[in-house]
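Hi there, hope your week has been kind to you so far. Do you reckon you could talk me through the fold, stretch by stretch? I've dropped the whole record in just underneath, so have a look:
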Amino acid sequence: MSLKYIKIKRENMTKIIKITLIIMLSMISTLGADLKSEEKIKIDIVSDVVCPWCAIGYQRLNQAINELDIKDKVEIEWHPFQLNPNMPREGQNADKYLMKKLRLSKDELVQKRKSVSKIGDESGFKFDYFAKMKKVNTFNAHILLDYAKDFNKQTELKVRLQNAYFNERKDINDRNVLFLEVESVGLNAVEAMKRLDNKIAIKRVEKEEKYWRDRGVFAVPTMIFDNTIVRRGANQVAVYKELLIGLIDKRK
């Protein structure tokens, strides 16, 4: 293979990557007129309730927002993503499931969890892993988060469910558990639970999850700021602060 051919191939691949990125951003962005100072910073967060890095990522983002004292200048919307979409409703033992999925030994899984727990403590989130912990199906939780959006209670319910799962040893697929958690954030739990069997509500959440997957979201958390800037994973507080300050400056 000639050097000339390799050079041409690399140039073509670079063009393809650039075009792909432009298309992806155009799908999740709506670039409009200059931002007005009174417009809130919109943060879309694609995540799963049982994702440890999603809990850590939000804690760090929230810390950045609080340290900048801009809570009234930010609007957060949560979007569904299932890490384990084929998980049976009754769930599976978390240790066995993760060792098989991630090809880890028992010792490797223990070390990984110790690391996550330490980072969680540093970020203000407690992880309490235990032998009988289950990986559960989170689809119902996402339906209830969609319901909570109508009452501006999404973030409150999201954090409540994360704590229920990770440090209170609760099965957040259990309808009785979900009822109590929804009620605890001040929502009408009876009305909310009706959504779980509502075909329109089910279809809406399925469609929204597909929307984000089709647009290249393959890892969570994925955060989109003002429909233009994408950050994946649990970034450091300083990174979020710098990003938010930049968006605030654009509004001046």
